[in-house]
Structures are given as structure tokens and as C-alpha cells.
């Protein structure tokens, strides 16, 4: 049996709507929210959180953007690829693991809210002001994911 591999890409889904064009005040507010949310959060950790939430939400645009940003900030490819299975690896610090667990709980809010154990674990690894910024960052990437998925933003072909 001979197997051929077709490496031709398929076209991206057509974008449904452009929020920057049609809701510019909202879009500018989102950009300001992003700026405020990431202040004081380690850039590598911020990108891990953004990629992880984006993977959970299935936002290809954000996965692509934040994976590239993470790599530019010195993140390692094998860690990005293993984010869906972070609990089964030894590659993440206790602090990163607490942030990833919090990201999952906030992102999957309808699946048990944010359990005290998850919140308390994060509170052990982050000062209160830093924890507040981390929560803001998680909320913000979830909003961006909803924009990307709903409007069908697609990453550029590579």
C-alpha cells in the first residue's frame, strides 16, 4: 500500500465580521484592557497562560500569535507543545503549574467555577497584586479568544 502525503493547505475560514472596523470603541477598549492586564506579569508566564487558555478555547489565531510571542521571549517549543498535558510533565515550575491550573479554572468556569484549592495554590505562589494581574490577564485572553473564535480570525498562512 502506497501512502502519499498532500501538504497543500486548505483555505482559512472566511472571517465573519471585523470588530475593529465595526465596533472600534470596543476594540480600542480591549487593547487598553490588554495593556493593563499584562502589567507586572512575567512575559514568559503571560504567554504560557495565553497559549494555554487559547488552546482550551480553540482560538487558532491566538494560539499562533502567543506561541510565536512565547518563543520570542525564550520559551521552549516542547513546553508549548505539552501545555494540554502539563500535569503529566516535569517541565513546569510549581508557580507555573499554579498559574496553569488557575487559567483552566477561569477558562472553564462552568465546570466547577474556581475551586478554593486552585485559588489558594495560586495565592501561595503569587503576591496579591501579582495574582490580581494574573487573573486580569486570564480574563482578558478569554475575551480575546471569544473575539477570535466568534469572528473567525485565522492566522496568516505560513
Short note summarizing the structure:
α2 packs antiparallel against α8, α3 packs antiparallel against α4 and α3 packs parallel to α6. The chain is built from eight helices and no strands.
**Helix amount, in percent?**
55-70%
List unreliable stretches of 5+ residues.
Answer: none
Largest sheet: none
* Strand/helix succession: HHHHHHHH
**Rg, please?**
17 Å
Distance between the termini: 31 Å
Backbone shape: globular
Mean pLDDT: 94
Q: How much β-strand is present in the residues? A: under 5%
Number of helical stretches of at least 4 residues: 8
Number of strands: 0
- Tell me the structural class: mainly alpha
Describe this structure in words.
Helix content is 63%, strand content 0%. It has 158 residues and is mainly α. It is globular. The relative contact order is 0.19. The mean pLDDT is 94.
Layout of strands and helices, then pairs:
Layout: H1 19-22, H2 24-38, H3 43-57, H4 60-72, H5 77-81, H6 94-107, H7 116-125, H8 128-151
Which features does this protein show?
158 residues; mainly alpha; 63% helix
